[in-house]
Amino acid sequence: MTPDIVVDVGNSRMKWGLCAPDVVQVVSLPLDDLNAWDDQAEKWWTEGPTNWAVGGVNPKRIEQFLKWQRTRGGNARHFTRYDQLPIKLAVDAPETVGLDRLFGCVAANSLRVAGCAAVTIDVGTAVTVNVLDPDGVFRGGAIFPSFRLMAKALHENTAKLPEVDATANHTAFPGTNTLDAIRTGIRCAVVGGVLAACDEVAKVYGPPDGIDAFVTGGGSTPDLFAAPGWNFLHVPTLNLDGIRLTAIRRQSV
């Protein structure tokens, strides 16, 4: 199936991507606001039945979305298992790997230089660093809290630290007040964690200039990560592209 609209349902938001045939436009929508879905669908509605391809990590909200989609007509392809995706896995328990990680890697395999290892870095509710070997096989990676979860944990597990919007108004180091110290500290933790994970990848697959690195996710920006030798390419549509490619490659299945 060649999709008209691809949908990635996350833990905090859902993203829709309009395909023509690549993902040419992206919107971020609330997880439970059907009126917002109606409004966006009217903006993108095409003549005749619409083909949807749906993936994500939030089963409850995915089911809610699919019920809504059925009321509007058209066709929906929902991917629920790793073995539905056009990618090989070499990990301990492939059935437990989040499909959002794998969709990003499907897209990365279409973008990386042939014969080069790659990493994808998805900055969402959590941060995931995902590793592809030179043959395009998913080898696992690292998962740790992102900006919002770190800010919430500091507030809920201390007596006096306030909860801050750690993704807004990034400040230079050192923070000269408590709010800025929390913001810059969380930023250092996220960036440092990603770069440390990338260093581990380089120990296995060689110098950074021979490893493709793709950054995505709602908490990412084009300039979030920088390190000598690394070329981090910001691809906001990475996971949506992975859903689109999966739908296309399985259209005859």
How many β strands by DSSP?
Answer: 10
Low-pLDDT residue intervals, each spanning 5 or more residues: none
Topology order in helix (H) and strand (E) letters: EEEHEHEHEEEHHEEH
- Give the spatial strand order of the biggest sheet: 3-2-1-4-5
Main beta-sheet annotation: 5 strands, mixed
Overall mean pLDDT? 93
Secondary structural class: alpha/beta
Task: Identify the overall geometry.
Answer: globular
Cα gyration radius (Å): 19 Å
The first-to-last residue Cα distance is 9 Å
| Total of DSSP H or I helical runs spanning 4+ residues | 6
Kindly estimate the percentage of residues that lie in beta strands according to DSSP: 15-25%
Helical amount: 25-40%
Task: Write a brief caption for the model.
This protein is α/β, with parallel strands linked by helices. It has six helices and ten strands, in the order βββαβαβαβββααββα.
Task: Describe this entry's structure for a reader.
By secondary structure, this protein is α/β, with parallel strands linked by helices. The chain is 35% helix and 23% strand. A 5-stranded mixed β-sheet has the order 3-2-1-4-5, with helices on both faces. Strand 1 (5-9) and strand 2 form a beta hairpin. Helix 3 crosses helix 6.
Task: Provide tags for this entry.
about 250 residues, alpha/beta, five-stranded mixed sheet
SSE blueprint and pairings:
Elements: E1 5-9, E2 14-19, E3 23-29, H1 34-44, E4 51-56, H2 59-72, E5 75-78, H3 99-111, E6 117-123, E7 126-132, E8 138-145, H4 147-156, H5 178-205, E9 211-216, E10 232-234, H6 238-249
Parallel strand pairs: 1-4, 4-5, 6-9, 9-10
Antiparallel strand pairs: 1-2, 2-3, 6-7, 7-8
